[in-house]
Design brief:
The protein is an all-alpha fold and about 270 residues long. About 55% of the residues lie in helices and about 0% in strands. It is globular, with a radius of gyration of 19 Å.
Amino acid sequence: MKRRLIQLCAALLYNLNLKGFGEASIYRGKIKGACVPGLNCYSCPGAIGSCPLGTLQNSLASMDRKLPFYILGTLLLFGVMLGRTVCGFLCPFGFIQELLYKIPGPKLKKNRATRALSNLKYIILVVFVLVLPVVYKIALGFPVPAFCKYICPAGTLEGGIPLVLLDENLGSLAGALFAWKAGVLAVIAAASVFIYRSFCRFLCPLGAIYSLFAPVAMLGVKVDEDGCTNCGLCVKTCKMDIKKVGDRECIQCGECIGKCGPGAIGWKKPIKA
């Protein structure tokens, strides 16, 4: 329950510009240049900050003019401090997927196929976030945030759909690309009813970035090896494709803490001076 409250508060804090929904406009104040930790679309009428993925794509495409020190430093800071705790607690789209999963229906349990598919997000990170924006800039002369443009379901849900519905002019201009993005969102939303956090597990490049910090992140869960009986209950009951608690696929939600009989799983303790 506490985690749900934190997820809800994070979603609200990211989108405090409520008047943007009434005006069908995007907030462009001074704090919009700062990135929030989770996946939250820059174009959402309520968004008061930037999405780290969108910022990263635009920065990489602008390296001919300036190096992307800000976004790389921001991702490094979030990664070292929080890691995939961002996924478990601070990502609005992850929260939405968890709510969709509560809809009654058959649920697909994790298996070899889902574990294999969990590697797809790293391919999407390389191709759509790191390579294509630079290729587009070289070929066309202007940056194209490929992941945001062609895939990101959070952008469609938070930015595209509200703006199209609220602004008649934008609604009349919506074409094949918007239809494609709406279709991607519909597929991911439908999959989330049957597959726990399907987008996070298989497609999210931001989760892929944060997963690289799993060994060093200051916040998260850990196993007391002396108290662990190696019963495997934590891995078995976890809905993510983990091989052990705290690995790259672990979103640090902490739900395994209450399921550990010996009480060998807990939160990392802050480093004392």
